[in-house]
Every structure is written in C-alpha cells, then in structure tokens.
Amino acid sequence: MVLMSRYPCVRCIARSTANLSLFGRRAPIFQTWAQIAKYSGLPLPSTPKNSQVNSVQNKGSSKKPAGEPGLAIKSLQKALGSASTTYSVYGAAEIIFKECARHAAYKMPKAGASEEIPTTENGEEIGIREVDAQWYQEFDLPVTFSTWSQVTMLHMYLLVVRIRDMSPHLVQLWQKNLQDQFFFAAEDGMVINHEMTSGSVRAKYLKDLYVQWRGLIAAYDEGLVRGDAVLAGAIWRNIFQANSEVDIRHLAQIVSYIRHTLQDLDGILAVPELVNFKFMNISAEKACIALPSRTMSEPFETDHKKQKV
C-alpha cells in the first residue's frame, strides 16, 4: 500500500530529523490540558485513548452540550491568559489545526472482504471527500492521503507566516504545537483510514512527511519573496505532484488565494485570536484571476533610438 508519492524537489531540502519528536503524546501535557478543560468547560483534545472512552460514555446519553461552539472558544481565550502558556497553546493549536485540515478531509469507503479499494496510478488508495473539502472538486485532485497532507500543510504554512511575528521562543512554541497536531492526525489517519497497523511503517511515512513539511516551508518562503511565478512552481510541485497536464488557471487561483489569505491574517492583532480565524472560500478566487490585465490593452512600443557614444 502506498500512501503518498515522494517528491525529489522537497526531499533534497531538509534531511535532518535528529531533533524530531513526532510519535509520543506526552502524558503530562495531555493530563494538564485535561485539567484546564475540566474547569473551563472545554472539550478534551482527541486522542486514540480518550476518544474510545468518550465514545463509550456518549452511547448511553443523547444529551448534547448547551451553547454554541463560539462559547467554547471564548472559554479557551479566558483560559489562555498568556500566549506563552504551554498547555494553553496546545489546546489553541488543536482548534486552528482542525480549520487547516477540513479543506481536504476525506474518509475511506467501506469495502467488503472480496472488494478492493480503488487506487491511483501510483498505487495510492482513493477515498471519499467530506462535504466541506472543496479542494478535490475545485482542482480535480485525487482524494488521497497525499493530497490531504499537502493541502493541510499549505494552510498550516499560512498560519506559520503569521505566527512568525512573535518573539522567537513563542514562535517555536506555537509552531511546534501546530506541527504536532498535524502528525497526530496523520498517524490517526494511517490507522483509521488505511488500517496501517505496523508502527515501523507509520514511523517511516511520518519521517517522510516531516521532510516534505520542511521542504514545503522553504519552497513557499522562496515563492513569497521572489514572486508569483516561483510560488506557482512550488504549488505545482507539491500539490499537483509536478503534473504536466495541470490547468495553469488552477495555479493562479491558489497563488491568489495565498496572497489574499496572508492579507487577512495580517489584520489579526494577536496570535491567540487565530482560534476564531476561518479561511476564505477557494472558489471565490476565480473572479480575481478572470480579470484581464490592464497592460494587455496598452500598445507595445520598442525604443529604436540609439544612444550617442
């Protein structure tokens, strides 16, 4: 079984994983956040252990919690107090990661014992997109783990750009917690959606994902600095797997989406307010790229005057 294709363009950028800590959900962190959630009325973060317990407890009760999701966010903001609180940042990172992951969320079809799950030409298993996952339909992307990871990491990158406008130790704290949420979700997806029971195989894929994440940051950073053409090239290599038949309008649409999203994020005064942030509808960017360039209607002139020596 193949979960994702390998991209030479990003694997060559960052190979060091010596300081990587992907796999252990540290008990002290989770337990402390559980105490904060208990007294502030917040939901517990989802992990394989507590999700099983919660599912058993919820079977016997059909009673739903009162209030709207916004109340939980407000309670979280009260619990945050200072953005430097490690356990508070952990809870905030879980909320903003879910916003990043929903754009390409998917599930696997229920196949019988004699049925085979459809795969791409590269052998990646094809799933069924969730209702809110617009990117698959918008850009004709395959519903695979690889697409989910690349689209999710793109949205994470946009938040990281905003998070960088903090003191260095807070940047590291927020970015690490957001990154950890991604790898928690990625490993859960391997187990739940793709029935990958081997821990060593999962560890291999997670390390490859980490290399791709580091390479993606470098590629998109370069695109933001050097211009839209370079940024479009990074999008083409990562999201579209360097497919030569990709519609160039799709690249322009995502470039416009990135620029406008960063503009919106620039208006957020404090990083903890990211828990309220919602990404714009990707389909809305079609109107922007359909506008004709003003320079196309201007006459083409060539200066034939020779300078006097």
From TrEMBL:
Pfam families: Ubiq_cyt_C_chap (PF03981). Residues 48-68 are annotated as: Disordered. It comes from the Eukaryota. Signal peptide: none annotated. One of its GO terms (cellular component) is mitochondrion. Residues 48-60 have a biased composition (Polar residues). InterPro entries: Ubiq_cyt_c_chap, Ubiqinol_cyt_c_chaperone_CPB3. Residues 137-268 form the Ubiquinol-cytochrome c chaperone domain. Belongs to the CBP3 family. This is Ubiquinol-cytochrome c chaperone domain-containing protein. It comes from Blumeria hordei.
